[in-house]
Specification:
heterodimer, A: 234 residues, mainly alpha, MetI-like fold, globular, B: 265 residues, alpha/beta, D-Maltodextrin-Binding Protein, domain 2, 2 domains, ten-stranded mixed beta sheet, two-stranded antiparallel ribbon
Chain lengths: 234, 265
C-alpha cells in the first residue's frame, strides 16, 4: 500500500514541477495516439457503416474477421510492422523504423478493426430505422453512409474513444517499432516500462497516474465539445 | 486521400533529421545510468545526437545485422567476433569493462558467500536447489551465465523448478529475483543503480572469469550503404578519447566506480 501512496506523491510532484521531460513524453503520447485515432477513424467509420448497409456475398465472413481482429495482439502487430519497416524488409528504404510515424502505423493497425467493429454494430441498428426512408429518397450509397455517420455520431464517439483508449495505453507494439528512444519515440507507456525495469516503482506509478489522468482529460474534453449528457440529449 | 495520408506520414517521419546516429546498446549501459552521463557530453563535443535503443545483446546484434542501427555497444565477445567475421561490422573496438556479480537473498541459504570461485558459487546454488533467476533473453549476461553453467559441467536440462528463466531485461529480472528472494547473475553497474533491492545483497564477486568487456562495433557500410559511417567513426573516436576516459572512470554511484575505461587510443 505504501508503494501506491509513494506513486501518488510522485505523480503529484511530477505534475506540480512541470517537469520538461514529462511534458515532452506526454505530448508525444498524445500526438502519436491522436494521429493514429484520426487516421483509423477516417478508415474505420466509413468501412463499418458500409458493412452495415451493404449486402454482399462474403459479408458474414468479413464481419467475423473484423470482430476477431479486435483482439489483435499488439506485440504481434509490432513485430510485423517492425519486419516490414526494417532495412531488411520491403519498406526499409522509407527509413521509418524507430520514428513516431512507425508507432502511428502500428497503432492504426491495432485500433482500426476495433473502431470499425463497434461502428458496424451501432450502424446496423440505426440502418434498420433509416432503411425505408433513405431507400425511398433514392439516395446514393455515399449519401446513406454520410447520413448514418452524422446521425449516429454519439455512438461513433464511443467507438473512437474506445480506440483512443486502446492506443494510448498500448506498449507492446510501440516498444518494438519505436524503440523507446529518449526525446524521439519515448511515450508514457514505454517510459513506465523503462522505470519499472530500473526498479523505480514510485516514478513508474507516477507516470501511470499521469497517463490515466490524461486519458480522463481527453474523454472529458471530447464529451464537453460534443455536448453529450446534457438535458434532453441523452 | 490515401496519397495525402502517405505524404503526411512520410513528412512526419523525416521531419526529425539533424545529425543523428542510432546506437543499439545493452540494457546495462542504460540501466547503470552511464548513458545519461555520456550522451549530453557527446552532443556537446561533437554535435552528434545519439539515439539510444536499449535492448539485449542478441537483439542489438540482430538490429545491426539488418542495418536498422548505425552502431552497437554490447558485451559478448564470441558473438561480437562472429558478427565481425560475417562482415556485418568492419571491426570491434573495446571500450570499457565492469564485472558480473552474484546477487541473492541476504540470509544466503546456499552459502554462496563462502564460495571461492564463480563456478563453485553456482554449484552451491544448484546443490541447495535455491531459486535462481536466469535472464533467458539471449543477452550478454545470459550468455555469460550459460557459459558458467557449461564450465561447471551442469546440464540445464536437468534443472528442476528452482531454475527460472524469466526472459526479460536486467532490471525486470532483478525485480523478479527480488520478489522471489532468488539468486541471480547481474552486472555490477545495473545492480548498483537498481532501485528495488529489497532483501537482496551482493554475495559473490571478484573471480576473473566474471570479467565483462564492453565493445563498440560500427555497422559495415559495405553491407548497408545507408548507415552513417562517418558519424559512427566520429563517435568511436570520441569513445576512445581521454575525455570519455575521464567521464567513464569518474562515473560513480554511492562512491563506487562502475566502469573501467580500457580502450586503446
Amino acid at each position: 500500500m505504501s508503494g501506491i501512496w509513494a506513486g501518488m506523491v510522485e505523480a503529484f510532484l511530477l505534475v506540480w514541477s512541470l517537469d520538461a521531460d514529462l511534458i515532452d513524453i506526454t505530448l508525444r503520447s498524445l500526438k502519436v495516439s491522436l494521429s493514429a485515432l484520426v487516421i483509423a477513424c477516417a478508415v474505420a467509420l466509413p468501412l463499418g457503416t458500409w458493412l452495415a448497409i451493404r449486402r454482399f456475398r462474403h459479408r458474414r465472413f468479413v464481419i467475423a474477421t473484423l470482430n476477431a481482429l479486435m483482439g489483435l495482439p499488439p506485440v504481434v502487430v509490432g513485430l510485423i510492422v517492425y519486419l516490414l519497416l526494417s532495412r531488411a524488409g520491403p519498406f526499409g528504404v522509407l527509413d521509418l523504423l524507430f520514428t513516431p510515424t512507425a508507432m502511428i502505423i502500428a497503432q492504426v493497425i491495432i485500433i482500426t478493426p476495433l473502431i470499425a467493429s463497434i461502428t458496424h454494430q451501432a450502424m446496423r441498428e440505426l440502418w434498420s430505422e433509416y432503411h425505408d426512408l433513405l431507400i425511398s429518397l433514392n439516395t446514393t450509397h455515399g449519401q446513406r453512409i454520410t447520413t448514418l455517420i452524422w446521425d449516429g455520431r454519439r455512438t461513433l464517439m464511443t467507438a473512437a474513444l474506445a480506440g483512443f483508449g486502446r492506443a494510448i495505453g498500448e506498449v507492446g507494439a510501440i516498444m518494438i517499432v519505436g524503440g523507446n528512444i529518449d526525446h524521439v519515440t519515448r511515450v508514457l507507456t514505454t517510459a513506465i516500462a523503462l522505470e519499472t525495469g530500473k526498479g523505480d516503482f514510485a516514478l513508474a506509478l507516477g507516470l501511470g497516474v499521469v497517463l490515466i489522468a490524461l486519458s480522463l482529460c481527453v474523454n472529458l474534453t471530447i464529451h464537453s465539445l460534443s455536448r453529450t449528457e446534457r438535458e434532453g440529449r441523452w | 486521400m490515401i496519397r495525402a495520408i502517405l505524404f503526411a506520414l512520410i513528412c512526419a517521419g523525416t521531419a526529425i533529421q539533424a545529425e543523428t546516429l542510432r546506437l543499439a546498446a545493452t540494457t546495462s549501459f542504460n540501466n547503470s545510468g552511464l548513458s545519461d552521463a555520456l550522451l549530453p557530453v557527446i552532443a556537446q563535443d561533437i554535435g552528434l545526437d545519439v539515439q539510444l535503443l536499449v535492448v539485449g545483446t542478441g537483439q542489438a546484434l540482430r538490429l545491426g545485422q539488418s542495418g536498422d542501427v548505425d552502431a552497437i555497444l554490447v558485451h559478448s565477445k564470441e558473438a561480437e567476433l562472429a558478427f565481425v567475421e560475417a562482415g556485418y561490422a568492419s571491426h570491434r573496438r573495446e571500450i570499457m569493462y565492469n564485472d558480473f556479480v552474484v546477487i541473492g537473498p541476504s540470509d544466503d541459504p546456499a552459502q554462496v558467500m563462502a564460495a571461492t570461485s564463480a563456478i563453485e558459487a553456482l554449484l552451491r546454488i544448484a546443490a541447495a536447489q535455491s531459486t535462481f533467476v536466469s535472464r533467458g533473453d539471449d543477452s550478454g549476461t545470459h550468455r555469460k551465465e550459460l557459459s558458467l553453467w557449461a564450465a561447471a559441467g551442469s546440464d540445464r536440462v536437468e534443472f528442476t523448478s528452482w531454475y527460472r528463466e524469466v526472459g526479460a531485461g536486467m532490471g525486470a529480472s532483478l525485480n523478479s529475483a527480488s520478489a522471489m528472494k532468488a539468486y541471480i547473475l547481474a552486472d555490477r553497474a545495473s545492480w548498483l543503480n537498481f532501485g528495488n533491492k529489497g532483501d537482496l545483497a551482493l554475495l559473490f564477486s571478484g573471480d576473473p572469469v566474471l570479467f565483462n568487456q564492453y565493445a563498440y562495433l560500427p555497422v559495415s557500410a559495405e553491407r548497408h550503404a545507408h548507415v552513417k559511417a562517418q558519424a559512427a567513426w566520429n563517435l568511436e573516436k570520441w569513445l576512445v578519447s581521454p575525455r570519455a576516459e575521464s567521464i567513464i572512470n569518474g562515473y560513480e554511484i554511492g562512491g563506487e566506480a562502475l566502469f573501467v575505461f580500457n580502450a586503446r587510443p
